[in-house]
Design goal:
The structure holds 2 protein chains of 2 kinds.
Chain A (H helix, E strand, L loop, with lengths): L1 H8 L16 H13 L5 E5 L2 H14 L7 E5 L1 H5 L7 H19 L7 E3 L4 E5 L3 H12 L3 E5 L14 E2 L4 E2 H14 L3 E4 L2 E9 L2 E8 L14 H5 L5 E2 L8 E2 L2 E2 L11 E2 L5 H5 L4 H5 L12 E7 L1 E4 L3 E3 L25 E3 H8 L20 E8 L15 H15 L4 E6 L9 H10 L4 E4 L2 E7 L2 E8 L4 E7 L1 E6 L1 E3 L3 H8 L26 E3 L9 H19 L4 E3 L4 E3 L9 H5 L5 E7 L5 E8 L9 H5 L5 E3 L4 H11 L1
Helix pairs in contact in A: 2-3, 5-18, 6-7, 6-15, 11-12, 12-13
Chain B lengths: L2 E5 L2 H5 L3 H13 L2 E5 L8 H7 L1 H17 L4 E3 L3 H16 L1 H11 L8 E3 L1 H8 L1 H7 L8 E4 L9 H4 L9 H8 L3 E2 L13 H4 L1 H17 L4 E4 L2 H9 L1 H7 L8 E3 H8 L4 H4 L21
Parallel strand pairs in B: 1-2, 1-3, 3-4, 5-6, 5-7, 7-8
Classes of the chains: A alpha/beta, B alpha/beta.
């Protein structure tokens, strides 16, 4: 390093070069500040680690010493050199020297820049009205900012509204969620768009424009008083209830569940006699509020918001053979979808729920009998690379333990059997909860997989293995509950593409940094929370939602936003207005503008950069045929200077 | 369809299961598919070689693959699932592991690229396709209510044989339904029959085979269809022993898949070798109730 420092001092234009082991430390920064003042420096090169780590630190140090922060360059001799090459070889040192020389030649041509100021709309959009979306919406609204909450189902509440009781306290899910739902419905700061979907998003941090499709409900939400006479009288009764995951039935005009918010029905045209056969019309006749409108159509509304929170949640992996995603494979051998008494975890929640199709009695779907032997299988799909889902779904160990308890508490002479791979019960009071299921409520746990489920003489034969006991296990079950893997909800990928945020190979939305920026996305102003980001349980979803809401509040605490000024600039005098840059710009940040004289006469057309949209990618620079586009802080002259220093 | 396939009979089809060979030869001839036996093939090593010396086992199969490649076959039919699996395993290694490929090539003293794809009997019928199968049918198999038995090897290991859903296969069902047969849903389609245990521990095989036969009967099947010589031995040849231990079990004909395809396209039992089965398997027996057989 000493040698490098000495040679750096000899580069033309370098006033002084100093070496210090931890330049980012407090004494290191003091040294930087001192040198700037002492030597009257007009540029600073830090040869150290990646600018992602410490650019901010050194710009702040420069600013404190009176140097414009954009006159600082970092020569990344760690990630770009010493970490990726053979240590202590001559070539490595030569490359480090080259990198430093390039940075010096760049900084020579830097000039002072000022951050760009952008106005912002202090209104947030929350996409998804499950427990995470509800929490985020309430937190932001309680802080005094307007919130628009978009939910695609007819009611807010999400998956949690359908759960029976929650681990590890066994408190009733609906009892703790519905007050929050009511709050969302009544909060003066929250505008609710249920049965609606986000159609398109444009704009940028602080200034997003969102197009929302309000799906035809065939019921005027404002006129309807929620008496639900229509619901009671509708003759089309035998339609599978989405809320009960097919275990119960609903009418053609319905609210998904009694505590729905808003408590306003929708008509499902696929099952409504009026729509299918142009008969009936009972709901129209009996509605005193005159709220039924068979002619209703989808409506498009546009909203301006400054920040977006995505909370679109999860769905369960389809255990049966048919899959909606290439690469995902089902478990044909478990007979899900063929045997009525093989159900998934969310279906069991409905069976155990007091508001469910059996009013909370555990009755098996095929014949309504009370099952005396129930087998629960964990990790169905999860942690199985052969099925295309290598990750752990995180909640299944806990809810399976909970299911065995709920079952035992309702069927005292029943026996619960659990097949598991590992028990993952990390969390406050979680392991104690699983022990309680085993020790107090007598669930029998077998460590091993189930090879298949077959039907014999009206019983479900579950063939598995107990790898601790070292023997095959065969259980005659009355019902089987499969803890199937969590997957991102339908349409999450498409939404991510509209929002220009990332997602991983499984479709879960990506956070900006797994440890230090867990609710931010790579697009400024868009945040994620809940199970759309990865499998998680209710407490975690809620915590993450509050975190996302806090981030929105930080954003909204400012009167205006500042952006880095390293954006494109167009020489408007010489621009021929060919619009090549306008077509090439991936961010729609370039517009065609007119230049007029004092008398208002058109002098010429030009391309013009909107600095609040420009991301500084430089595409326009490379396509401009007349070399009128350039990038602040990364000009073509600077690049030539850097290249020249190498030859 | 006028096709020429490389053919690897393995020890079984030239020996104890010669009925399987005549069945396949006759049946595929009806579809103008000619089988040409691999010139100078060697034993695949069966279960003995791969449990004692994996390199020996791979080398034996590698030699057969090298011969197939030299003779220019794009596909090699190995009707015995064990042979097929051993060949697939060797080919998988050749394609995935360059060092291993060189080593095997040196051992067998032949160039080796893994160009020849190894297929089983079901894949031949699948490539013919249901539409063409249907066109060839002269005698629809309306009396057949088949329990399709895949055994343990046909679909496993899935990444090596790359065939059907390993735990819940249904390709055989599709082929039989194209011939006018019906198939039953049952529980033991991929369960083990006991395989080579039949020599060392006959009583184990009898118990395992009994479970398979009894489950097929309980689900309404009037025959079992297999694509493996070993399964056929245990379910057909040993059926008399099994019925001695379990007298309530009715006689159940056990067909090779090629038997039924052959019968459907109008071939005679004797041409296919169906008359050589131990359990009588003439098609008209199927219309009689099981108790009277």
């Amino acid at each position: 390093m000493e040698d490098l420092t000495a040679r750096t001092a000899e580069i033309p234009g370098v006033k002084c070069a100093v070496h210090y082991k931890y330049m980012c430390s407090d004494p290191g920064q003091s040294l930087v500040r001192e040198k700037i003042v002492e030597e009257k420096l007009d540029g600073l090169v830090v040869a150290a680690c990646s600018p992602h780590m410490h650019m901010k630190t050194f710009r702040a140090a420069a600013k404190a010493a009176g140097l414009n922060p954009y006159l600082v360059e970092i020569a990344n001799i760690r990630e770009h050199c010493s970490w990726v090459h053979e240590p202590k070889t001559e070539m490595t040192t030569v490359k480090a020297m080259d990198i430093i020389r390039m940075s010096v030649n760049k900084v020579i041509q830097d000039h002072s820049l000022e951050p760009i100021k952008v106005s912002l709309v202090k209104r947030a959009l929350v996409i998804g009205g499950g427990v995470a979306g509800i929490q985020a919406a309430l937190d932001i609204a309680d802080a005094g900012h307007e919130v628009i909450l978009v939910e695609r189902e007819p009611s807010v509440g999400g998956k949690m509204a359908g759960l029976s009781e929650t681990f590890p306290t066994l408190d009733c899910s609906q009892c703790i969620l519905t007050p929050r739902m009511v709050e969302v419905g009544q909060h003066p700061g929250i505008r609710l768009y249920t049965y609606s979907e986000v159609e398109a998003v444009s704009g940028f941090l602080g200034n997003f424009s969102v197009t929302i499709r309000k799906k035809a409900r065939y019921v005027d939400v404002d006129k309807c008083n929620g008496c639900l006479d229509c619901w009671a009288k509708c003759p089309s009764k035998q339609n599978q209830s989405e809320f009960d995951y097919g275990l119960g039935q609903r009418k053609a005009i319905y609210v998904p569940f009694p505590q729905a918010v808003p408590a306003r029905p929708v008509i499902d045209p696929k099952t409504c006699i009026k729509f299918q056969r142009n008969k009936c019309g009972v709901c129209l006749k009996i509605c005193k509020a005159n709220a039924i409108n068979y002619e209703d159509e989808d409506k498009i509304v546009t909203e301006e918001v400054g920040a977006i929170v995505v909370a679109t949640g999860f769905k369960l992996y389809n255990i049966g053979k048919k899959q909606d995603t290439p690469g995902i494979i089902g478990y044909g051998e478990y007979g899900y979808g063929e045997y009525k008494d093989v159900i998934d975890g969310l279906q069991f929640e409905r069976l155990a729920s007091a508001s469910g199709p059996t009013s909370g009695e555990i009755r098996r779907p095929s014949d309504g009998a009370e099952p005396k032997n129930v087998v629960f299988i964990a990790c169905v799909g999860s942690r199985d690379p052969a099925k295309g889902i290598p990750y752990c779904s995180k909640i299944c160990c806990m809810y399976t333990a909970k299911h065995t308890m709920l079952y035992k508490h309702k069927v005292h002479d029943g026996q619960a059997h659990v097949f598991y791979m590992d028990i993952r019960a990390g969390g406050k009071s979680y392991d104690e909860f699983v022990r309680r299921a085993i020790e107090k409520d007598g669930a029998r746990y077998y460590r091993g997989r189930v090879s298949k489920i077959s039907e014999e003489n009206g019983k479900l034969m579950v063939s598995g293995s107990d790898t601790i006991g070292g023997e095959p296990v065969e259980i005659e079950a009355d019902m089987v509950v499969l803890a199937s893997a969590m997957r991102p909800s339908d349409g999450a990928k498409e939404l991510a593409q509209k929002l220009k945020i990332g997602y991983d190979e499984h479709g879960f939305l990506s956070e900006s940094h797994p440890k230090l920026r867990p609710v931010e996305t790579t697009t400024a102003g868009i945040f994620v929370c809940g199970a759309c980001q990865g499998p998680k349980d209710i407490p975690e979803s809620v915590a993450q939602a509050s975190a996302a809401a806090a981030k929105v509040q930080v954003l909204f605490s400012k009167s205006e936003l500042t952006r880095e000024p390293e954006v494109a600039r167009i020489d408007e005098i010489n621009c021929a207005a060919c619009s090549a840059c306008l077509r090439a710009c991936p961010y729609s940040a370039i517009e065609r503008a007119e230049i007029r004289d004092r008398g208002g006469n058109l002098v010429k057309y030009t391309s013009r950069v909107n600095p609040s949209l420009c991301m500084g990618c430089g595409t326009c620079v490379s396509v401009c045929p007349s070399k009128c586009a350039d990038l602040e802080g990364f000009s073509e002259q600077q690049i030539y200077g850097m290249v020249n220093s190498l030859i | 369809m006028n096709l020429l396939l490389g053919y690897y009979p393995g020890c079984a089809l030239h020996g104890s299961s010669s009925d399987y060979e005549s069945s396949i030869q006759a049946c595929l001839q009806a579809f103008k598919i000619r089988l040409v036996e691999l010139n100078g093939w060697v034993c695949c090593g069966a279960s003995a070689a791969h449990s004692v010396n994996p390199l020996l086992s791979k080398s034996l199969s590698a030699r057969n693959l090298a011969i197939a490649e030299r003779e220019g076959y794009t596909e090699l039919l190995a009707p015995c699932p064990l042979c097929s699996m051993e060949l697939c395993k060797a080919r998988h290694t050749i394609l995935e592991d360059e060092e291993h490929r060189k080593q095997l090539s040196d051992i067998v003293e032949l160039p080796l690229q893994g160009k020849t794809r190894v297929i089983n009997v079901l894949q031949v019928f699948e490539s013919i396709g249901q539409a063409e199968l249907r066109e060839h049918v002269k005698q629809p198999l309306t009396e057949v209510r088949a329990a399709c038995y895949y055994g343990c090897l046909l679909t496993r290991p899935p990444k090596v044989v790359e065939f059907d859903d390993c735990e819940h296969p249904n390709s055989m069902e599709g082929i039989l339904e194209a011939l006018g047969a019906s198939t039953v849903k049952w529980n033991f389609a991929t369960e083990c029959c006991g395989a080579g245990m039949t020599l060392a521990r006959e009583e184990t095989v009898i118990e395992l085979s009994h479970r398979i036969l009894a489950n097929a009967v309980a689900h309404g099947a009037n025959c079992i269809v297999v694509a493996c010589p070993m399964c056929h031995v245990n379910l057909d040849m040993k059926q008399e022993e099994t019925r001695k231990a379990h007298p309530e079990l009715p006689q159940l004909p056990v067909y090779y898949l090629s038997d039924l395809v052959g019968l459907a396209v109008g071939l005679k039992e004797s041409q296919l070798g169906v008359d050589k089965h131990f359990v009588p398997a003439e098609l008209d027996l199927l219309s009689e109730p099981a108790e009277t057989r």
